[in-house]
Fold this protein.
Amino acid sequence: MQIHRLGKTGPEVSAIGLGCMGMSGMYGPSDRAESIATIHAALDAGVNLLDTGDFYGMGHNEMLIGEALKGRKREDAIISVKFGALRDPSNGWNGYDARPIAVKNFLAYTLQRLGVDYIDIYRPARLDPNVPIEETVGAISDLIKAGYVRHVGLSEVGADTIRRAATVAPIADLQIEYSLISRGIEDEILPVTRELGISITAYGVLSRGLISGHWQKGQQGAGDFRAVSPRFQEGNIDENLALVEELRKIATLKGASVAQVAIAWVAAQGKDIVPLVGARRRDRLTEALGSRAVELTADDLSAIERAVPKGAAKGARYPEAQLKHMDSEK
C-alpha cells in the first residue's frame, strides 16, 4: 500500500482510506459483525485511514470503530473525525455547532466512545454560519496543544474559508465530495488547496454507489439517503445509469470493474488526493483495493472523459435544502 502525507505537516496515510459512515445507517441496515470484519480486513491490507463522524448513528459509528480497534496498537489507525452536526431523537438534522466550547465538548464524548486518548485529524463537518472558522480552528489548535488532537482538518468548505482557516493553523486536508460525476472542486477549491499545500480526502468517489457498477433502480429502502438524493430520482437516474454503462465499456477493456476504474480515476488526479471508499463488506473492500492495480494511461483518461464528461450527471449531489447551507457550494 502506497503512503501519502496529508498536507505539509499532516499524518502519513494509506493511498486509500475507509469511510465508515455506511456501517451505521444512512444507506439502510448494516451487519455489525461484517462491519467489524471489514475494518479488520482494511487494517490488515495496509489501509490505516479510518474516517467517521460523531453524529453517524448518534455515536454508533465511533463505538463500532472503537470495538474494532480493541487489541490493536493505537498507531495502526489514523482516525479522522468530523464533529458539529446536531441531531434529534427522530434522526432529524438541526444545524451545526462549532463554537469553541462545543468543540471541546464533542471531543470529550468522541474520545470516550472510541476508547482512545487522542484523535489524529479533527474537523468540523460543515461551516457553522454563526461562528468564524478562525475560532473553530483555534479551539482545535488548543486541543492539539493539550495532546488530545494531532492535526486540523476541514470539510465541505469553500476557497475563502480554507484561506482563513490556514492563517490560524496548518490544515492537513480538506474532506469533500469528488468523483467522476462530482467535479465542482476543480474550479476554485482544488487550486487553493494546492496553492496552500493542503491534501484532499475525497468521499463519494462512487457517488453513493451510483457509479459502482452494482446499483439498480429501486434498490434503496427505508432509512437510505439515496431515497431523497436527486441523482437517484426519476428523471435523473436513467440518464445517470447510462453514463455508468459507458464507463463499464472502458472497465471491461481494462479487465477491471466499474468501481475500480472510478476509484482509480480519482486517485489519478494527483497524489494529494486520497479516495475514501465506503465499503461495508469485505467483498466490496477487496474490489475497491483492486483499484490500486488499475493503471490509467493518458488514452484511458481521455476515453473516460468522453464517456463521462464533466457536468454530465443529472441532479445535484445533495437535496437543494442542504446545498443552500454548504459553504463549499457558495
Notes: Residues 3-210+260-294 form a domain with the TIM Barrel fold (CATH 3.20.20.100). The first strand starts at residue 3 and ends at 5. The mean pLDDT is 93.
